[in-house]
Amino acid sequence: MNKINYQKKLDQILEGFDGRKPTLLLHSCCAPCSSYVLEYLSQYFHITIDYYNPNIDSKEEYEKRVKEQKRLVKEMNLNIEVFDGGYHPEIFYKTVRGYEKEPEGGKRCYRCYGLRLRQAAKLAAQNHFDYFTTTLTISPLKNAAWLNELGQQAGEEEGVTFLPSDFKKKGGYQRSIQLSKEYDLYRQNFCGCIFSKKESEEKRGISLRNGEDMKKI
Predict the structure, then answer these.
(1) Domain-located, residue 196
(2) pTM score, two decimals?
């Protein structure tokens, strides 16, 4: 089975715009991941950010991340509205019930991806956006194939077009790190949920005992 090149699919869609700028609802997981995606896609779309992340482990962490998201948009001088979906961790815990012991990147994450993409699809459909997508594919730790499959499925269910992506390609992930440094963004060292935080802390403890340090997500 041939592996799908989602960046190539995105390139083909962008080439067909011929100067016009459709509307895009961009689900964002955090400011660092959105930095390159905003720089890249703002050339082609009128963007609205959908900040919906009920997986984040505490309200304090949630508010810190959404504040950074809004600061980034302002400092990048982009005329982009940030829709804050609010902190609703009970939705996440209900979604991943029974999958708490899954490793990071496993079935628990698959269900979490689906939760956030379905919400984005519904919001995009309700507000008549031309496209919706997510910044999540920029991370080398996220399964781009899963994200694109779930996004496509959610879009078909809600009647809105999902924009395929693999934003880590074409140097996207490296550029996001560079932009995070330029804007002095808060870069967390865990994905967001309490399970990823615990796993990150365990790995970090092992690394520190071995005289190493972990790269931030």
Answers:
(1) no
(2) 0.91
